[in-house]
Design goal:
The chain has one domain: Up-down Bundle (Fumarate Reductase Cytochrome B subunit), CATH 1.20.950.20. The protein has 9 helices and 2 strands, in the order βααααααααβα. It is mainly alpha-helical. Helix content is about 65%, strand content about 5%. α4 runs antiparallel to α7. It binds protoporphyrin IX containing FE (HEM) (2 copies). One protoporphyrin IX containing FE binds next to α1, α4, α7 and α8.
Length: about 250
Amino acid sequence: MTTLTHNYKRVYVWSLVVRFFHWTTAFSTIILIITGFIIADPPAIDQNVEAANSYWFGYVRAIHLITAFILVAVVIFRIYWAFVGNRFANWRNFIPFNSKGLSNIWHVIKVDILLMPDKDHNLSDISIGHNYLAAFSYFLMTILFFLQAATGFALMSQTSDFWFTESFSWVLKLFGGDILTRYIHHFSTWLFMTFVVIHVYLVLYHDYVEGRGEASSMISGYKFVRAERFDFYNNKKKKAEKKLKEKSEKKDK
Ligand code: HEM
Ligand code: HEM
């Protein structure tokens, strides 16, 4: 069987920093989910060892907390990178409240989710970096992550007198104690898991349907983009730069 292929260009979209952030986030999230569920429901292991000599639960908790600090650090760094990184890493991609973003979201819902035919075939509907719906889901997950970190540090403040974790003790007061705080931390874990399942499914779906190297792009950094889409983007960029230059020349006069 043969399929029609277009003329593709190999475009470098995910910088090393973004890829490092991605895989650190992915592995840390998996570790936090596993250790979190062990903390939530510790298996009663019948052991012939004095409790004081068996510290396995302490290690599970330590792994959870160390991983949590690593994840907080990489997320903060990624936010910084959203202001200094390349255009595909820029914060503007993640906040779609403009006509371009909203129309791209509508296109993704129609064509990718509801599987309706793409009658218009607009070149601008093909995303080079993130599509706006995916990027918006990362934005929402970042907000959820801050809630998870705040409730996590608040739970930690009960057993630690480190000034940083203590500074989150107000979260316990806000939720009326550690029971609700713990429930919120637990419930958000299910939201993280839902995100991971949908995210990995959609990455593999796009990889299979579009054949643009979506899944491997987070390893190599490269995606394949139709040449005419890339030229369309370059022409637009040149026009915008020209306009900007003319504007600043006018101002100088
Ligand atoms: C980001 C910073 C985070 C911090 C500081 C943190 C900290 C904590 C602490 C202190 C506990 C309670 C430990 C205990 O009672 O011994 C806990 C429990 C838990 N954590 Fe985290 N955590 C964080 C992120 C996450 C993430 C991202 C997930 C999952 C995606 C997660 C899942 C869980 C679960 C399921 C529990 C058990 C909750 C329960 O008792 O029902 N945590 N975490
Ligand atoms: C726990 C698992 C995972 C988590 C938490 C996660 C999280 C994320 C996040 C936060 C981003 C945005 C990256 C950025 O712009 O800085 C992203 C993008 C991406 N991820 Fe994952 N990821 C996970 C698993 C995977 C896996 C297994 C694959 C590959 C098969 C994958 C492939 C991708 C790709 C290709 C993108 C860019 C797609 C797009 O344009 O929206 N991810 N992921």
